[in-house]
Amino acid sequence: MKLAISGASGKTGYRIAEEAIKSGYDVKLLLRQNSEINENLRKCDSSIIALNQPKSIDNAIKGYDALIIATGARPSIDLTGPARVDALGVKSQILSCHRTGVKRIILVSSLCAGRWIHPLNLFGLILIWKRVGERALEESGLDWTIIRPGGLSESEEELDKQAILYSGPDVQQDAYIPRRLLARSCIEALKTPESINRILEVTSDISIRAVTMKEAIADIYAIST
Description:
This protein is an alpha/beta fold. It has helices at 13-22, 54-61, 81-100, 126-138, 179-190, 213-224, and strands at 2-6, 26-31, 45-48, 66-69, 104-108, 143-149, 151-153, 163-167, 176-178, 198-205. The strands form 2 sheets. Strands 3-2-1-4-5-6-10-8 form an 8-stranded mixed beta sheet, sandwiched between helices.
């Protein structure tokens, strides 16, 4: 599979790229102007895109099978960032997938997306705009999976002792997950047809039993039906 990753220079995006390469995907990095990437990713094919320039996205993803959207508004005094990146930017990438024939999209969103009352909304209503982006993907007609991670940790230590806790939408609230495990969950979603057209919340802990994404989805939706 030929896989494009937007936001690939970010703290989550570069880890997704590394995990994709380990899994044997043909990876293309979609980067903003002046982005810096890790040394071990510099051999990857890459393209500079601007979320407000549709042709730059079209040219970058044409011929690819799947797109992982790991773009996200950065903390800034500019409170319009979440609307531009997490809503309009996601919509722009979805429309580009339609134009270029990319059928599979994984979107990295956030726990509590869509909630009005939350401290993160002090930063430009970020959770509200993330939900707008999610809805655009849900209504796209493409094969989508939305991954909602909890609070993100930079730690790379003892990852093998942690298991991912999966849930359906609007269940979890305030747990955490290392970015590396989030990256692995994105790649697992690509390999798991059962994840198509699902919203999955992901956090992690050492006290829970490890299950595959496929097993978790079967449990989640058996309980909810």
